[in-house]
């Protein structure tokens, strides 16, 4: 289970590339904004946030959908608390709105089928995916959960995910910690999702 959790954890940030440093001020000003640490779901210990990095996190950052988010025109920010709670926001600007719609559909399908896929890849792991509806914001956002348990070691993890879109821009948010779905701040995560999409522009 530790290997599984490690795969979910966020990776060390990469340095900005020369191309990003050379971007025009007007382009930088037009880049989508990110969640602040305080806008993550409430936790018993404060959230901290990294700076915003270019590209995608190691392992693609999206559990059950690794590498489906392209690195080009993509940035991300990682979040953590003093407890075993973490998160990430990944935002990408697609070439066209049609491409953005396609990416949202791809991510939604991956998240909806996440549990069965993990059980197939990890014998003995119990994994249940669930959809938790649409959040009314811009072109819409959709929320999912993944509840996993490794009976042989008595460990459980819960993750919440959302995928939202504003025009050509798609944002993906993940929240995770030890525990079960009943321990997850689902309502607060929906608020975080709405904030994330609203903040893009």
Blueprint (SSEs and pairs):
Elements: H1 2-8, H2 18-21, H3 25-29, E1 48-49, E2 53-54, E3 74-80, E4 85-93, H4 97-112, H5 114-121, E5 126-135, E6 141-150, E7 155-166, E8 169-178, H6 186-199
Largest sheet at a glance?
Answer: 8 strands, antiparallel
Low-confidence stretches: 6-29
Task: Work out the strand percent.
Answer: 25-35%
Mean pLDDT: 86
Count of beta strands: 8
Q: In angstroms, what separates the terminal alpha carbons?
A: 38 Å
The total count of helices amounts to 6
Shape: globular
Structural class by helix and strand composition: alpha+beta
**If you compute it from the alpha carbons, what radius of gyration comes out, rounded to the nearest whole angstrom?**
16 Å
Proportion of helical residues: 25-40%
Please trace the helix and strand order, writing H or E for each element. HHHEEEEHHEEEEH
Quaternary assembly: single chain
